[in-house]
Amino acid sequence: MTTTDLPTPGPAATDTQLAAWRDAVTTAGLPDPARPRWQVLRAGVVGLWEFDVAEYWFADGRAQFVGQNQSGKSTLMALTTLLMLAGSLDRKYVDTFGQSDKEYRYYVEPVADDRDRRDASASTNRGWAWVEYGRIGPLGTPEFFTTMLYTQTKRGVAQMTRAWVVCHGTARVRAGLDLAAGQAVTEPKALEAIDSVTVYPKGQTYAERLATDLFGFDDTDRYATVIEMLKVLRTPHLGQKLNPDWFTSQIRSALPPVAKSEVTELAHGWQELEQLARDRDSAEEARKAIAVYLTRAWRPWADAVLRLHADTLIAADTGVTEARAQVGAAKADLDDARKRLDEEARNTQHLEEARDRTRTELMQLLRSAAYTTAVERANDAKRLRTEANAAKRRAEKAAARLERTRAELEAAKSEQEKADEEHGNAEQELNLAARRAAETATGARLGDQVPQWAASGDVDRFDAAITARRAHVGTLRKLIRAASRASSAWQALDDVAQKAQEQLKERIEAAEATEQALAQALQILSDGLERWATTLGDVCPPVEVRDAWITAVTAQAGTLRPREVLTGLLTREWLDPATGPLTIRVAELRAAAKLQPPAPPKPNATLTHSKVPATRCPIRQCGGSVVTGRHSRPVPAPRCGVWSTRSTVSTQ
Predict the structure, then answer these.
(1) Is the distance from CB of 42 to CB of 62 less than 8 angstroms?
(2) Per-position DSSP letters for 165-179, written without gaps between them
(3) CA-to-CA distance for 109 and 77, rounded, in angstroms?
(4) Which of the given ranges, 96-105, 157-166, 571-580, has the highest pLDDT on average?
(5) How far apart are CA 241 and CA 225, in angstroms?
């Protein structure tokens, strides 16, 4: 008998029908849909919280959880309801009381707490949560829609790996979708090869797929409103989270007007809600007491601790800031020195050019023909005066030459006047050149006595001032070179520090990659050992022994020279104890068979045969496992057996 042969259980079902349906669920395969619309059939988790493998079925879309406190009823409901519908791991969907104190990571990774009963020694934890929907398709064949969530955490890594998976087809969990092999959890990449399986890295895209394909919503906002309403109604303390105005507007937009009888019932509900409000007030008073404790005791203590550790951080930050300010000031001083050096170099160049021009003009003036002619004419004038005096004395003797001499005298006077005029012009040009040299030297700041030097024509003082200025320029250039060498040394040291920091970062990344690879290798070894153990059946080594083997292999990972311990442990603790007694027993039976001949059967004896299960062969095994929870370990369920026939003789 299967579930399809029984009526769908509901409120009107009898006890006999419910018992028959329960027996069929226990012994039959998987539930089949019975309606043309989507309806939830079953849900479950793998490797989450305290469940190795857990699965529960819905009866006509309903499910009831019965059990003691802390047995996992609320946890199983939280993992397979709103989270799988909303496509979000937000805290408001995780906590069954509507609070924000618990993260989804808590259900995947055990914590080192005495109240947590899970094993917290594993470095990597994986788990699945899934919900299956079914309907009768347009062609009359069953159609299934399975939503799945895969999560993985690594010890010490804050980020949690997640993948949202949808399977719309004939494949089902435990019938084409194997989420676990023994105690090893299957990863999403192993399901990508299955037809009709889609993996979504983001929950938003997954939720849009559910809204359109599963629930038929054209507007995702309506789907989000339904999720919000379900979240509010799921909360046990309904009065603390219910917003009547928002809830009323959503209900009015989706439902027809409420009948008077329903209004009456709603009034009674509001009375009960007032009682809940009073309970809420008492809880609010308790919350205020806790807030007072936090304000007066805990937060001052936390502030003191933070302040104690913040002083060290502030001192270090102040040191870094001062170092940066000193570096900036040194750079600013270097820039100012370079600017002053450039300015002094330009001034020196202008002074040298002005000096060269002045010296050139002076030499040109001294070597000019007008100056030479004027000097010669002055000498001639002196000679003519002498000759005139002599002529006056010889006037009486040289009367004939008097007129000619007067004429030459007049001509000489004219030339003398011209020479005097040219001499005045030369003096004016010389004074102008001296003024220009004085102005240029004054602009170059060679000293306050520059006009006197120019007036007296003291070129040596100009040369001495320019030489002193060149010495200052040389000193500034040496300072600039020293500053440049210091800057180069600082830059080299900074480059060495940066290279050292980069090498440190690369070595840290290599160490992290090696640690991740080691964890992955240990996880692969653990998964392979679990898959191998599932094929052994009755002679499968216990879970504690397998955990001890993995622990021994993990301990070798921290030694300098790791040894191969798994082969020795497997041979010494499992293979030899299993095969040793059998080998000894076979040798004893063979020896007994050789020493004692078979006894003839007695008269009137009847030979009967009975099938007795033979000892399971440790080399050839066939077996499966029954899906159970963590509280009872997987039980081998043999699919085939090895039987031996034993003859017994009885006398009549």
Answers:
(1) no
(2) EEEEES-EETBEE--
(3) 18
(4) 157-166
(5) 15
